[in-house]
Fold:
Amino acid sequence: MKNVLIASVSLLILVAGSASADQQQFPAKLAGQAILPANTMVPAPADAPEFLKHSGKFTTPDRKRTEALGTVPGKDGARVTDLKLPFDGQPIQGFSGVKTMADGTFWTLSDNGFGSKSNSSDSMLFLHQMKFDWAGNKAEVVKNLFLSDPNKIAPFPIVLEGTGTRYLTGADFDIESIQPVADGFWLGDEFGPYILKFDMSGRLTDVIPTTLDGKPVLSPDNPLLSVPANPAAKMPVFNLKRSGGFEGLAMSKDGAKLYGLLEGAIYKDDGTVETIDGHTAIRVIEFDVASKKWTGRSWFYPFEDKGVSIGDFNMLDDTTALVIERDNGAGTADKACADPKQPKPDCFEAPAVLKRVYKIEFNDANVGKSVRKIGYIDLLNIHDPDNKKRAGSKDGAYDMPFVTIENVDRVDATHIIIGNDNNLPFSAGRAADKADNNEFSLIEVGEFLNAM
Structure:
């Protein structure tokens, strides 16, 4: 690929209240873009139960079944989007992890479906092999791989337990990150949280619970937790918030180790969350692929003051990696609500402020300590002097004012791919009243990738 040069000089920025006082902001330039429309559906497989032919039947606030197609409006807070549930088919959406392949394609995945375990029992779990025509602005889905558990590997009853095909749904696992390997795929899950392994046909082969410092790591959505029958009895113990499991899953360059990165901080016995140097911190936890066991080694990833979650995580070499860090805001400041406490349908109550890709370093020398944040690019201000963007309204710049941006990987020596999770049909960050499309962008960041 022809390199795209940036005529820009990096500035050393001392960030007040940052997790690393010497972190540096690097320039980024848009080199191409491909957009998959929000309303992109595929039929359920022919051998799937009738129950899966339509999706989103349990997405009202009270989770009551709704069979009539297109009768439940998608909403982002007070704002109503332009798509309605249930859907005819399964949506290709919620992209939540990406991996660059040697043949020029990319593997990615849709997460649990409609945002929670309780509303996603008719949302199928599947992976996507994709191609992008950056010049033609086209995203092509080459293959959809639906996930199943025919050999009854899951240690709990799945939603479709009694069916012949035993397809997996968003009420079984919340898959959020992907690492393709020669014999299949490693995926990170948020419900357990678990590390999952699937073969090349999408069949579940391994479900591995998470342990850290000799203790289990448990989400309130862990299917093996149960509420006691006696109201006076103690509730089950868990140490992650809901949606705090493995948002990121990276693999060492030799394939020997996986690194699971939690989305939420671990809660300690005293009810407080883990911190480091005064900042809330989440864990990078090391997993040995050959033995399929946790090594006992981990590192802390500290959030910025406005950071609340990570979106994706991929290794660059033996010791450095890319991580997306974000706030919970969506939309642009020019369309902010006059009073955030009184949100309205035509404005953003909490515009996006912090959406970044960090380059980090962790190694043998800082096990049990903080990763080093080398520097970052700002996803709210990507240079676009050649007008490559096909979305956004900033002159000379491309921005990603989405609540969730959950795809990043290196493409070559100077470029990365970045993509949003559009939480169909609930997220509307590009426009106040329209469900976000799936935007994938090729970004020139040579200086950032070479930073030390």
Notes: The chain has one domain: 24-449. Residues 58 and 250 are 33 Å apart (CA to CA). Residues 24-449 form a domain with the Neuraminidase fold (CATH 2.120.10).
